[in-house]
Write a structure and sequence with these properties.
Radius of gyration: 27 Å
CATH class of one domain: Alpha Beta
Structural class: alpha+beta
Distance between the termini: 32 Å
Oligomer: single chain
C-alpha cells in the first residue's frame, strides 16, 4: 500500500542504450558487508543507540560499495490521521520536500542531484512514512544535514503557497494512480468494504479529493508538532562509513532537535466480518476481476507467517495451485495474485483473479472456493512448503543486496517487530511452521462468511462529485510560518564533501564459445546471489512484415514448455530453487532473465538453456499463450499511458516500419500464429552467434566456464544464418497532433515524441546531460514547471531511447484534463529555452554530477549489472564504453550540451499524442493551433 511520489525518474533512464552499465571493480576479496550468511543463517550486523531527545539511530556498517543509504522513518501514517483527514499523512510526505529553514524551497533535491544521489524518494504506508536517498560515502555529512533539516525545520517553510501546490500534486497523483488506472477505484472500494467508518485503514493511503483539499495550514502544523519530532523517528544509516564519525555527526545535526510530547497511542480492534459482504464495482476496464479479501492477523502475530505461506501455495507464482488451475489448465484467468498484506493493526489476505474475455467470475469464484476449502482441510505438501520457503528466503536475500533496501528492511524490523535485528526470527517463523499449521490457519481465517467478495466489471466509472481546484495563491500571508526548533545559522552553509574515492568503473570480462556465443562476466563476490540474461538479436525489428507480434510471442512461449519439461514442471523447478526465469521480446532484442541464489545457479542456468535450445511449441501451449496475448491486447486499451506509447510508435516510425506495429501484434496476426511460424522464427534468430549470455554475481570465471560450456557449448543454429536487412529509417506521420478519446478521463496522458539518434551518436554524453536538465531528473525544467510551480501533474519526464539501429525522444506524463493545452505551452517554452542558450555553471554542474557521481549507486545489484551489460551489447557498443563513461560525462560543457539540444531536439519534429477526454481536450489543442487528427489504431 505504498503511495510513493516519483521524486525522480531513476537516472537509469538517462543511461539507457549505449551507456547502460558502469559496474564496480572486482577486489581480490570481497569488502566486508553487513549481511552475514555464516552457517546458512542470515543476520544483519548493526548498532542501535538513542539520543537524549529520543531520536533513534541504527548504524549498519557495510563496505561493499562507496555508498551510504539514509533511511528516515517517521512513525506516523494513515493510522494516525484524524477523522475527515484521509490522505493527510501522504500529503505531509510531499510537504516534507518543499523546503526547510536552512535548505530553501526547491533546493533539497538539487543538493541530492549534485552529490550524485540515487534512490531518492519518500513513501507512505498505513503505519509509517519514510524518506530516503543514497549518496556517495564522501557525502555522509551532507546527507545528515539534509535529513536533519527536513525533520527539524521543514515546518518553518510551509505556508499556504506550498500547501496549495502539494494539494494539487497529490490530487493529480490520485487521478493518475486511482481514477485513471485500471482497477484503481476497485482497490479503494475493497478497503471501504473491509473497514468500517472511522477505521484508519478504510480510505487506503491516498485519501479523497475532498479531504485532501480540506487540509488547512493549522492542520499541517498540528500534525508536525505531534508526530514529526525526534522522539517519533528513526534513522538508519547503511553503508560505507566510520561508525565513530557517524555518531559524532548524528549528534551534531540531530542532537539539538526538541522532543515533542509522546504521540497518542492508536488502539483499534481488528474489524470482524461475520457475514459475507458482496459488491459490484463498475470501472473503465476491459477485463473483469474478482477479489476475495479477509481480515487476518497483524504482522508477526500468530497465523501471519502461516497465511503468507498459504498465499504462496494458492497464488504465489506459476507453480501455485490457482495459477495452474485457472490460467494454465482451464484458461479462465489472465492473471492470479494471492497475498498476505501484513500491517500493524490488521492484515488483509487477498485473492485477485483477472478473468479472460468471456469467462464467468461466478465460475472462477466457485473454483477458488474449492481450492481454499481443500487447503483448509488437507495440508499442503512438503514440496509446496519448501517452495514457499525458498522463494521467501531468496527475496529477503535480494532485498539485502542493495544498501537502500537493506536500510529500509532494518527500519521496518525496528518499528514493526521492535528489533532491528529481527531477520533471524523472521525467517525462523517460516522454518518452524508445519503443513498442518498452514491448513489450520486457512480454516480459521478464510471462511466464506468472513470475507468481502468484489466483482469488478466493465462499465461507467462512478466517482465522488468533483471537488474544484482553487486558484493557486501567489504569496503567503503574514504570520503563516512558525518553528518547532530554534534557527541555527551555522546550518545555512551546506557541509563540504569529504575526499572522494576514485570513481573506478571496472570493465567486464568476455569470452566467446566455439559456437560464437559471447559470454560477458561481471564477478561480484559477497552475497551468494547470481543473475543472468541471455540476450538475442531477436526482437520486434526482425519481425516478418506480415506477422507483427511474432518476436514477442516466441519469447513468451519459451518458459511455457520444452521438449523435456512441461510448463508446470518448469514452474515447479524454479519455485523449488527460489529463483525466477522470465522471457520477453523487446524492440531490438529478446531476453531470458534468471535470478536466484548461487546454490540455484547450476540448475537455474540449465533451465534457461533448456527452454532456449529445446522449445516445444506444443499446440495446447500455443493456444493458451495466444489467448493471454489477445487479452493483453485488450488490457492495453485500459491504460492511457501505454496507449499513448503504442500510438506514439505508430506516429514516429510510420506505416509499414517494423517498430511501428504494436509489439503484441494485432488480433488478426495473433490468431494466425501457429507452430510453424514460431519455430521458423526461432530457427532463424535464436542462434549462438547472435546472442550474448551476461552473468553477474558470486561466480568466478572458472565457475562460470564450468557451468556455461556443458550447457551452451553444443548449441548450433539450424541452417544457414538468415540475411537480416537493416532497419529502414523512421517515417513519421505528417500530422503533428493525435488525440485518442477516453471519455470522462480525469487526466490526459501525453507522449510528445520524435525520432532520435542511435546509441552510436558521438555526443551521447552531452545529450544525456542536456536531457537531465530538460526533463530527465525530478529537478528538471519541465517537471519543476509543471509539477512544483503549476501543480498540473504528478510528474512529467523526458528521455532518449538509444538503440543499435533506432532511436526515439519522448516527453511522457499525465496532466489534469483542464490544463492539457497549458501544459503543452509550458513544455514548448522549456524546449525553446533549452535550445536558446547554454546552461549556467550551477545547473550544468548539478545535472552533470547527477549523471557522473551517481554511477556506483545506479548499478549496485546483480540485476542492474546484467541488465546494463545486456543493453550495452544489444546496442552494439564495445565493453570499453562502460569504462569510458566517467571521462565522457566529465568532459560535457555548457556549449556541448547546447549543441546536443540544437542537433537532437527539434520542436518542429515533435508529435503530440494525447489520450484523454476529447470533448474537453480538443478545444484546448485547437486553441494552440494544433488541430488533432483522427487517432491511429494501436
Amino acid at each position: 500500500m505504498n503511495a510513493p511520489a516519483p521524486r525522480r525518474l531513476a537516472v537509469l533512464l538517462a543511461l539507457a542504450g549505449a551507456l547502460s552499465l558502469p559496474a564496480w571493480s572486482t577486489p581480490v576479496a570481497p569488502p566486508e558487508g553487513a549481511v552475514s550468511t555464516a552457517a546458512g543463517q542470515l543476520a544483519i550486523r548493526h548498532e542501535k543507540f538513542t539520543l537524549p531527545n529520543g531520536f533513534e539511530v541504527i548504524l549498519v556498517e557495510d563496505h561493499r560499495l562507496p555508498l551510504v543509504a539514509f533511511n528516515l522513518w517517521v512513525h506516523a501514517g494513515p493510522r494516525n490521521e484524524a477523522k475527515g483527514q484521509t490522505g493527510f499523512a501522504h500529503l505531509f510526505e510531499h510537504l516534507m520536500f518543499a523546503g526547510s529553514r536552512h535548505v530553501p524551497r526547491g533546493e533539497y533535491d538539487k543538493h541530492v542531484d549534485a552529490a550524485g544521489g540515487t534512490d531518492a524518494n519518500g513513501s507512505t504506508n498505513f503505519d509509517r512514512t519514510n524518506y530516503f536517498f543514497t549518496l556517495p560515502s564522501n557525502q555522509l555529512e551532507k546527507g545528515l544535514w539534509l535529513k536533519a533539516d527536513m525533520l527539524g525545520w521543514m515546518i518553518d517553510e510551509v505556508d499556504s503557497v506550498a500547501l496549495a501546490n502539494q494539494q494539487d500534486v497529490v490530487r493529480n497523483e490520485r487521478r493518475q494512480t486511482t481514477e485513471n488506472q485500471p482497477y484503481g477505484i476497485v482497490e479503494e472500494a475493497k478497503y471501504h468494504a473491509l473497514y468500517p467508518e472511522g477505521h484508519p485503514y478504510r480510505a487506503a493511503v491516498i485519501g479523497s479529493h475532498a479531504d485532501i483539499q480540506s487540509i488547512r495550514l493549522q492542520d499541517v502544523k498540528a500534525f508536525a508538532r505531534t508526530y514529526y519530532r525526534p522522539n517519533n523517528a528513526t534513522l538508519v544509516l547503511a553503508g560505507d562509513f566510520d561508525p565513530r564519525q557517524a555518531k559524532a555527526l548524528v549528534q551534531k545535526y540531530f542532537g539539538t532537535l526538541k522532543a515533542g510530547p509522546k504521540p497518542p497511542e492508536v488502539k483499534v480492534a481488528m474489524p470482524e466480518i461475520t457475514q459475507e459482504r458482496r459488491l459490484v464495482v463498475r470501472d473503465r476496464i476491459e477485463l473483469s476481476r474478482l477479489n476475495l479479501a479477509w481480515h487476518t492477523p497483524a504482522m508477526y502475530q500468530a497465523g501471519d507467517a502461516e497465511l503468507d505461506v498459504a498465499a504462496h501455495v494458492l497464488g504465489g507464482g506459476k507453480a501455485s495451485r490457482l495459477y495452474g488451475l485457472l490460467v494454465r489448465d482451464k484458461q479462465l484467468a489472465q492473471s492470479v495474485h494471492v497475498g498476505q498484506d501484513s500491517q500493524s493493526l490488521s492484515s488483509v489476505f487477498d485473492i485477485e483473479v483477472v478473468a479472460r474475455p468471456g469467462a464467468s467470475l461466478d465460475e472462477i469464484e466457485r473454483l477458488v472456493d474449492a481450492e481454499v476449502e481443500r487447503l483448509a482441510t488437507t495440508p499442503p505438501t512438503d514440496a509446496e512448503i519448501a517452495q514457499a520457503r525458498a522463494v521467501i528466503e531468496t527475496q529477503v536475500l535480494q532485498r539485502m543486496e542493495k544498501v537502500t533496501s537493506l536500510a529500509d528492511l532494518v527500519n521496518h524490523y525496528n518499528q514493526m517487530a521492535g528489533d532491528p535485528g529481527y531477520l533471524g526470527q523472521d525467517l525462523a517463523r517460516y522454518a518452524a511452521l508445519s503443513p498442518a499449521a498452514v491448513s489450520a490457519a486457512v480454516a480459521q481465517w478464510l471462511g466464506k462468511n468472513r470475507r468481502v467478495a468484489l466483482q469488478a466489471l466493465p462499465g461507467e466509472q462512478v466517482l465522488a462529485p468533483e471537488v474544484p481546484t482553487p486558484p493557486m495563491p501567489t504569496k503567503a500571508a503574514k504570520g503563516e510560518r512558525e518553528a518547532m526548533n530554534a534557527a541555527e545559522p551555522w546550518r545555512n552553509k551546506p557541509p563540504a564533501a569529504a575526499k572522494a574515492q576514485p570513481l573506478v568503473l571496472p570493465a567486464a570480462q568476455s569470452f566467446t564459445l566455439a559456437n560464437g556465443l559471447t559470454v560477458i562476466h561481471s564477478p561480484k563476490p559477497g552475497l551468494p546471489l547470481v543473475s543472468a540474461s541471455l540476450v538475442l538479436r531477436a526482437g520486434q525489428a526482425v519481425n516478418p512484415a506480415d506477422k507483427p507480434g511474432l518476436a514477442g510471442f516466441v519469447a513468451a512461449m519459451l518458459p511455457e514448455g520444452s521438449t523435456t519439461r512441461s510448463a508446470q514442471q518448469i514452474a515447479e523447478s524454479l519455485a523449488a530453487l527460489g529463483a525466477t526465469l522470465t522471457a520477453q521480446g523487446g524492440a531490438e532484442d529478446a531476453r531470458l532473465d534468471f535470478s536466484g541464489r548461487k546454490a540455484a545457479a547450476r540448475d537455474g542456468l540449465a533451465l534457461l538453456a533448456d527452454v532456449t535450445l529445446n522449445p516445444a511449441f506444443a499446440a495446447p501451449d500455443i493456444e493458451r499463450v495466444k489467448a493471454q496475448r489477445l487479452a493483453a491486447l485488450a488490457q492495453q486499451r485500459e491504460q492511457a499511458d501505454l496507449l499513448a506509447s503504442v500510438v506514439g510508435n505508430r506516429a514516429v516510425y510510420g506505416e509499414g516500419h517494423p517498430l511501428a506495429a504494436n509489439a503484441l501484434g494485432t488480433e488478426a496476426s495473433l490468431q494466425a500464429v501457429d507452430a510453424a511460424a514460431l519455430r521458423g522464427f526461432w530457427q532463424a534468430h535464436y542462434r549462438p552467434e547472435r546472442a550474448a549470455l551476461v552473468v553477474a554475481g558470486d561466480l568466478t570465471e572458472a565457475e562460470l566456464r564450468a557451468l556455461v560450456e556443458p550447457l551452451f557449448g553444443a548449441w548450433q543454429g539450424q541452417g544457414a544464418a538468415p540475411v537480416v536487412a537493416p532497419l529502414p529509417p523512421a517515417r513519421p506521420i505528417a500530422a503533428r497532433t493525435v488525440l485518442v478519446d477516453k471519455p470522462g478521463a480525469p487526466q490526459t496522458a501525453l507522449a510528445v515524441v520524435a525520432p532520435g539518434p542511435t546509441a552510436a551518436v558521438p555526443d551521447v554524453a552531452s545529450l544525456k546531460v542536456m536531457n537531465a536538465a530538460l526533463g530527465g531528473l525530478f529537478t528538471s525544467r519541465i517537471n519543476n514547471q509543471l509539477r512544483e510551480v503549476k501543480g498540473y501533474t504528478y510528474g512529467v519526464y523526458s528521455g532518449y531511447t538509444l538503440g543499435r539501429e533506432r532511436g526515439q525522444f519522448g516527453i511522457r506524463g499525465s496532466v489534469r484534463t483542464d490544463v492539457t493545452g497549458a501544459a503543452l505551452v509550458d513544455m514548448w517554452k522549456e524546449i525553446a529555452g533549452m535550445r536558446a542558450k547554454p546552461m549556467g555553471a550551477a545547473e550544468l554542474n548539478r545535472v552533470r554530477n547527477a549523471q557522473l557521481l551517481s554511477l556506483p549507486g545506479l548499478f549496485d545489484t546483480n540485476v542492474a549489472v546484467v541488465g546494463g551489460y545486456a543493453g550495452n551489447w544489444s546496442a552494439g557498443q564495445p565493453l570499453s564504453a562502460v569504462t569510458e563513461l566517467p571521462a565522457k560525462y566529465a568532459a560535457v560543457t555548457s556549449a556541448s550540451a547546447l549543441k546536443a539540444a540544437q542537433q537532437h531536439l527539434d520542436p518542429a519534429r515533435l508529435i503530440v499524442i494525447a489520450v484523454g477526454d476529447q470533448a474537453k481536450v480538443q478545444p484546448q489543442l485547437e486553441a494552440l493551433g494544433r488541430r488533432p487528427v483522427a487517432p491511429l489504431a494501436p
